[in-house]
Design brief:
single chain; 464 residues; alpha/beta; Aconitase, domain 3; 2 domains; four-stranded parallel beta sheet; globular
Length: 464
């Protein structure tokens, strides 16, 4: 009667602290340059070594520029953080994929694509979007810097066990509806706090039919509903994706791994703390209109009027409308936009570039649009070129930048100017998230591509 979450969690319990948290063993720690420096500094001060260095992988992504990566980073803060990660990895004997390394990229893109993220694992990183790795059938979640130090020193972490939730999405997705739209729809229904305290298992026909890239996108956005994380039971899609990747098991180890991975599913009679079901036919291409990811709607719909907002949320709704320059009750279709961003750990994978290219092929980028197309890793960059997508994009007037987090959070040079509208495939639309005063509209790669060639918010289905 166990859920899959119970099975993975219980298999990693080292000990229960009486009237306290659980000591949980961690299979994989990912470190990037933003949340790890203080953890390493404290380790150094205390004279500690990493307990299991072979289970720790480091790479810069937040601060890396997306151009001229072969040159010195100009921004002194970014340079200091990237350099510090390289020094810490060397001092503590950790694997480090630095800038321009063929295995570098956004940590949540590289982990799955290199076979570092595997079913049944517990995975942590000092980054909220660690939930991405749950798509592989792993229990993955973000942690704070003091917890990063805890894992560096002991390969364990102290955690309260979250409650379990299953979200079933049944039916078949309509034309132009992607995993990103599914996630934005769930957030619009549940709000950004609707899954607080829970770990989500995604299930149902829609989820089973998603590609691995789609599953990674869906799990990536779990945190935006307030969840501790989200994951999907591994199946043939998972196994086929993992097979042959750099760090995937090989030979007899592969057969043993498959046998174990096939046991990773919730029991038929498993009871969840909460269970919800949604239907695919109610989901259309989505776009956000406000300043949190839950403020989203179908692209043909209108922004809610004030009477449809509960009293507690009316002040923040009006504040968001003022910031975004929108009015309650209006449509967004046809609104002029300034920037388009394709990338981030949400939508920086090869499938996302294929989708974007499918819309812009044979068309031209609108003159009023600045477009940043940023692969999530050097592997994605190589795939883009192998498939000739770079030629399709260049002929349409787009340039491909170098891998990194880019304009998702503006910790690098890629900042949306104040007052400008960006249709973005990233994960957050908070005030100033993409640059001070920037205005972000979250959408799928298809919707971003449609806006990029028309210069206005456009229903992507007209191009499909």
């Amino acid at each position: 009667m166990n859920t899959l979450f119970d099975k993975i969690w219980d298999a990693h319990v080292v000990q229960h602290v009486e009237d306290g948290p659980t000591q949980l063993y961690i299979d994989r720690l990912y470190c990037h340059e933003v949340t790890s420096p203080q953890a390493f500094a404290s380790m150094r001060e205390r004279g500690l070594k990493c307990f299991r260095p072979e289970r720790i992988f480091c790479m810069p992504d937040h601060n890396t520029p997306t151009h001229d990566q072969d040159k010195q980073i100009e921004d002194p803060v970014s340079k200091a953080q990237v350099d510090e990660l390289a020094r810490n990895a060397a001092d503590f004997g950790l694997t480090h994929f630095g800038m321009m390394h063929p295995k570098n990229g956004i940590i949540h893109v590289v982990g799955p694509e290199r076979g570092l993220t595997l079913p049944g694992m517990t995975i942590v990183c000092g980054d909220s979007h660690t939930s991405t790795h749950g798509a592989m059938g792993a229990v993955a979640f973000g942690i704070g810097t003091s917890e990063v130090e805890m894992v560096l020193a002991s390969q364990c972490i102290l955690q309260q066990k979250p409650k379990s939730m299953r979200i079933n999405i049944e039916g078949c997705l309509g034309k132009g509806v992607t995993a990103k739209d599914v996630a934005l729809y769930l957030m619009s229904e549940l709000t950004t706090s609707g899954a607080t305290g829970y770990f989500i298992e995604y299930a149902g026909e829609v989820v089973r039919n998603l590609t691995m890239e789609g599953r990674l996108t869906l799990c990536n956005l779990s945190i935006e509903m307030g969840a501790r994380g989200g994951f999907i039971a591994p199946d043939e899609v998972t196994f086929e994706y993992i097979k042959g990747r750099d760090y995937a098991p090989k030979g007899d180890d592969w057969e043993k791994a498959i046998a174990y991975w096939k046991t990773l599913k919730s029991d038929e009679d498993a009871v969840f703390d909460k269970e919800l079901t949604f239907h695919a036919e109610k989901i259309e291409p989505m776009i956000t209109y406000g300043t949190n990811p839950g403020m989203g709607m179908g692209i043909t719909q209108r922004i809610p009027t004030l009477d449809r907002i509960d009293e507690a949320g009316q002040v923040s709704f009006e504040k968001a409308m003022q910031y975004m320059g929108f009015e309650a009750g209006e449509q967004l279709l046809g609104k002029t936009i300034d920037y388009v961003f394709l990338g981030a750990c949400t939508n920086g994978r090869i499938e996302d570039f294929r989708a974007f290219a499918s819309v812009v092929k044979g068309r031209k980028k609108a003159d009023n649009v600045v477009a940043w197309l940023v692969p999530g890793s050097w592997m994605v960059d190589a795939q883009i070129r192998e498939e000739g997508l770079d030629k399709v994009l260049e002929e349409a007037g787009f340039a491909i930048r170098q891998p990194g987090c880019s304009a998702c959070l503006a910790m690098n040079d890629d900042k949306i100017p104040a007052g400008k509208y960006a249709v973005s495939t990233s994960n957050r639309n908070f005030e100033g998230r993409q640059g001070p005063g920037s205005r972000t509209l979250l959408a799928s790669p298809l919707t971003a591509a449609a806006a990029a060639v028309t210069g206005v918010i456009t229903d992507p289905r007209m191009f499909i």
